[in-house]
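Hi R.,

Here's the chain you asked about this morning:
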Amino acid sequence: MSISTLAISRRLEARGFTESQAEGVAEELVVIVENSDLVTKDFLRAEMGELRTEMAGLETKLMARSAELETKLTAQMGELKTELMGKISDVRVEVGHLKNDTIKWLISLQFGSLALTVGLIYFLLNYFLLKR
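And the predicted structure, written out as tokens:
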């Protein structure tokens, strides 16, 4: 940023400063401005442009990483689904075996109960018929 000390001193002279006062004030203003950390519009625009570029790059990286994670997650979910379906199938087979075992036990108990009932009836008939 360039500051015209001549323009400043002329304006100050027009407002009633003497020539030496106007030049002194103008020179001090230049020193103050040059030693300060003032920011120009052009500097801000340049910095904002750089920030926008960096942000666009980060956004691109983030989108790529997001897609990568989504792909991995989808693959893992597929593997888990396959594993779960296998385990469900194993449980169904086991339930089927338990069902068959239960039916075998029930049939055995029914035949045992029938044999016990027939034996009891036979015993009671013999006992009462022989007693007479």
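The chain has a mean pLDDT of 91.

Let me know if you need anything else.
M.
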